[in-house]
């Protein structure tokens, strides 16, 4: 009977039984990834590829062509937010160099509103914590050079019990526009009964997508629309038709097992990401404890190279130089913000797993993808001990046989010579990462044996197999 467990709550057929969860008991905090068969994944991948490559499915309304970079309040503060915190955070983003690195959104998550709407039916900001009003706060943050985001829910209530937008989509979109917001994160709690909705999650989200389009046209200011239905209804197949990003799993936690589970799940649906629409791996947990330095680097590298939105979620007044250096790695950010290639990296080898086997603790270890400047590789050590990681260059479909490649280390920021046929990284730390950019450097040296790097794939014109 049990369907899934989220946030310590057992959920049966849409009903929630509290199990020691905080007051915002609807919110899923731990991603749950189930085992999928090869046939199911193959079908999903085929559909995702069709959806992602069909331009009719892309929501191109002039914003969010590239992944959003910014800040969100939830991971660090949950409901403990006010206007002073938001303004202070925006100023810190500027003084710490985060704005200069490209982080240009300051987003408010749940808990900003009064528990009841006005007599006219409008959402109203909390009169104590946002006493000067959202209009003034937006004006102040915009004056610092940022854009701003707000939060709502597709059900009766938000995940923390504040007014949701079901039945008030146009009204609430108008409120958010009047307040001056540029971005909406839209959650999936407190879903009305089927007899009321008469539709699934797709239709429920389409209502707000239509409202945002209508209001955006009226105000001549299109919204960025971030869908957050946690991957319940295969959102990677339809999200691009109405939004710019879509959460694919439950909420992230600052532990390696949570990161590994999210990476594993998303390794099978990378084809859904492209310009104007992308898989959202959830907000960053860098700086919130629970991760080693190497795990933090792996977290950021995977999120950035998979072209997820990058939303910082830590107390910036206490951020360490190490974490700040990760968040501002310009070479990694440049690939996330590549204006020529919008696609995510994808696995070309699953490491310790048989191909296409789901394993939440040991996701794919060998990844690659094209960029405007070459082919990017991510080597992810999912083991609890150091590892030597080696691969043949042409295992990646984006590499040419018979060529040599210059090697750029995107974390050491060094040029590391030339790779011919193979690359080996020694002593990759536990849960650590290697990020490389390989650029074509001409023909490989003559006279190499065997004449094929992957010897069993080639045949001489006289019919003789190489090495056989």
UniProtKB/TrEMBL annotation:
Residues 362-438 form the Alpha galactosidase C-terminal domain. GO terms for biological process: carbohydrate metabolic process. Its EC number is 3.2.1.22. Belongs to the glycosyl hydrolase 27 family. The keyword Signal applies. Keywords: Disulfide bond, Glycosidase, Hydrolase, Signal. Gene3D superfamilies: Aldolase class I (3.20.20.70), Golgi alpha-mannosidase II (2.60.40.1180). This is Alpha-galactosidase. One of its GO terms (molecular function) is alpha-galactosidase activity. It is an enzyme of class 3 (hydrolase). SUPFAM superfamilies: (Trans)glycosidases, Glycosyl hydrolase domain. Signal peptide: none annotated. It catalyses: Hydrolysis of terminal, non-reducing alpha-D-galactose residues in alpha-D-galactosides, including galactose oligosaccharides, galactomannans and galactolipids.
